[in-house]
Amino acid sequence: WQRYQPVSYGLTSRSGDAAAFDDMVSRCAAVGVDIYVDAVINHMSSQPSGTGSGGSTYTKYEYAGLYTRADFHDPACVIDGADYTSNAERVRTCELLGLSDLRTEADEVQDEIVTMLVDFVNRGVRGFRIDAAKHMGPSDIRAIIEKVGAAVGAEKAPYFFLEVIDNGGEAIAATEYLDVAGTSGSVVDVTEFKYAGVGEKFRGFFPDEVGDLTEFSEEGWSLLPSDRAVSFITNHDTQRGGALSYPDGARAELANVFLLAHPYGVPQLLSGFAFDRSTSAGNASGPPSDDTGHTNSIFGEGSDVPTCAAVPSAALPGEWVCEHRHPSVAAMVEFRSVTHGKAVTNAWSNDGAQLAFGREGTGFVAFNLEETALETTLATDLPAGTYCDVLG
């Protein structure tokens, strides 16, 4: 709620300042981890007035040194629920939840956004998630990405992925955003929200649903092209809506194993913090923080030991869940790297909640969500030999 209501493009926030950000980027780069920034460029805040986390004062539509009323769509209108299935123009020009909607088609607005994105690239950032992309026209996004590419050059052209919520039957289709890279030199992918259906299979409401995934395919599920789709079981938004997530324990873990084992898409993993789904306030709560509202590090004071919940599914509000530290994540990231480019082979299920498949002679994975052990002989195309369970 707070992070997605920008009132400036400064780097001072409840998480630290520009120096802390630069330090994070450099330390991550030193161990081979690239950073992407979640860029909120469709809108500014919805609040009438106030002071931002970095100390800047503002009123809605007036953000000192950045935007004035002329930079926002006028007259203002608010998106209605029916617009999402019937009126693409209103989705792109009216206000999302009352958030002041920028005229991203305007050169002067694009230039402010590009200045911010280029600054991030020069700080070592390697990519961007573009928030609320469906609320901007594809031509607006293409113009911004091309301007960034022109400013930083082909060698530093960042990776982009666009948040486009399309569950089918929408006035705006995710496929409209597949051709926005233009001449930038950037790779631009698009979120595939229909992939969340995989997580629903792992919920286990019906005993045969996991087995159904032997038929999972881009064509069968009407998904975006695999090499352009960002696939995920849950993200920071869908988690709040009740998607399969850390409270679901082993089922959530196994769904992410499937995400990494199956070749579809560019997988995105979520690692976050606990919150209380049962109340509105709890569902809207932010990360673990101190009395001043500043976000706590996952490391204790003067310690290099992370303060993560001992059992992710039992994490309590105020605790970091640290899903990324689960042993299966590292093992399956390696599995995905080794099997890259290899097709699914020897898919099998027991017509229930047991599933297995190979990856063209490079790996094999089996799932069992039933109460009894899976004891059977399965065909594989792996070379003869003795194999170990990398998830054990």
Summarize the structure.
The protein is of the alpha/beta class.
Note down, in words, how this protein is organized.
With 392 residues, the chain is of the alpha/beta class. Helices cover 23% and strands 11% of the residues. The strands form 3 sheets. It has a 6-stranded parallel beta sheet with strand order 1-5-6-7-8-9, with helices on one face. A 3-stranded antiparallel beta sheet has the order 2-3-4, with no helix packed on it. Helix 7 packs parallel to helix 9.
Topology diagram in text:
Blueprint: H1 18-30, E1 36-39, E2 49-51, E3 57-59, E4 62-63, H2 83-86, H3 88-93, H4 107-122, E5 127-130, H5 138-152, E6 159-162, E7 188-191, H6 196-202, E8 229-231, H7 250-261, E9 266-267, H8 280-283, H9 327-338, E10 345-349, E11 354-358, E12 364-368
Helix pairs in contact: 4-5, 6-7, 7-9
What key attributes describe this structure?
single chain; 392 residues; alpha/beta; six-stranded parallel β-sheet; 9 helices; 12 strands
Anisotropy-based shape: globular
For the record, give the distance between the C-alpha atoms at the N and C termini, rounded to a whole number: 39 Å
Average predicted local confidence, pLDDT: 95
How big is the Rg?
22 Å
Low-confidence stretches: none
Backbone structural class: alpha/beta
- The total of helices stands at 9
Spell out the helices and strands N to C: HEEEEHHHEHEEHEHEHHEEE
Helix content: 10-25%
The tally of beta strands, per DSSP, is 12
Beta-strand content: 5-15%
For the sheet with most strands, the description reads: 6 strands, parallel
In the sheet with the most strands, the strands line up as 1-5-6-7-8-9
